Amino acid sequence: MTDTQTRAGFAALIGEPNAGKSTLLNWMVGAKVSIVTHKVQTTRARIRGVAMDDQNQIVFVDTPGLFRPRRRLDRAMVAAAWGGAADADVVVLLIEAHRGLTDGVQAILDALAENMSHVRLALAINKIDRVKAEDLLALTQKMNSAYDFEKTFLISAERGHGCEDLKHWLGEQMPEGPWLYPDDQIADLPMRMIAAEITREKLTLRLHQELPYQLTVETEKWEERKDGSARIDQIVYVSRDGHKGIVLGKGGETAKAVSKAAREELQEFLGRKVHLFLQVKVRPNWLEESERYSEMGLDFKDGNA
């Protein structure tokens, strides 16, 4: 097989928080490489998932949701999202069918027109099962009047409707050339970071309100054992003493439940036994520490006002 028979490139998924980017990425890749929760702003780093479509390789960049940043972490996340879009061969803007052309989506379109007019942009209207066919048609026309999209796809990332068409089209848009990754590799994130993301997802699902965004998880140690299992030690950093008690729960029950759920998912992901140990530590200023950003795959400097 010659190089010219294969294609490989990058596709970025952008949109407002909770538009379904992580769900779509996981469907495309066929495995869980990006955390999916009902809460917004859960994806912090540009997570790359690798998908194959015949002889075409699509490296997906799952970006944090684009929103109005308030804190250093927010600004770094938004910078990562725009950086992911700027570096991609094709960008897919994901919007929710039932929400339509919101102020947030309009702001994204304005920013694209102003700073990234060179970017090839497709539209994916997600969660199509939530609206009537005539409303979907009207929204499609409205969006294409607002921006000159190369192609529009109607999808349900959760159910997989329309996703195959989108994947196939993206595969055909990738530049000709050799594959960037082995065909059996699904993500270029280090396993330590994937493990931390899985634990953070379980914490986010278990806890409520502002706390999940005031914590981070780091994989401190990863030990391969002779019996084929892995021992993983992780630290949950929180910014206040009161948060530590919430994460631990009464008698440590919350931390135990989170650890059990994360361990089970890690075992399924790795296909082997995992021993997971969690510690909770208070670091009041972790949001201002550059090494915490590096662990999340973000650039600390991007958080500057």
TrEMBL record:
Stretches the record annotates as G3: 62-65
Region of interest (G4), ranges: 126-129
InterPro entries, A to Z: G_ERA_dom, GTP-bd, GTPase_Era-like, KH_dom-like_a/b, KH_dom_type_2, KH_sf_prok-type, P-loop_NTPase, Small_GTP-bd
PROSITE patterns reported in the protein's UniProt record: G_ERA (PS51713), KH_TYPE_2 (PS50823)
Region ranges (G5): 155-157
Keywords: Cell membrane, Cytoplasm, GTP-binding, Membrane, Nucleotide-binding, Ribosome biogenesis, RNA-binding, rRNA-binding
Residues spanning the signal sequence: none
Binding residue positions for GTP: 15-22, 62-66, 126-129
GO biological processes: ribosomal small subunit assembly
Domain of life from the UniProt record: Bacteria
Coiled-coil annotated spans: none
Family annotation (SUPFAM superfamilies): P-loop containing nucleoside triphosphate hydrolases, Prokaryotic type KH domain (KH-domain type II)
Chain segments carrying region G1: 15-22
Assembly, per entry: Monomer.
Sequence similarity: Belongs to the TRAFAC class TrmE-Era-EngA-EngB-Septin-like GTPase superfamily. Era GTPase family.
HAMAP family the record matches: GTPase_Era
Protein name in UniProt: GTPase Era
Source organism of the structure: Marivivens niveibacter
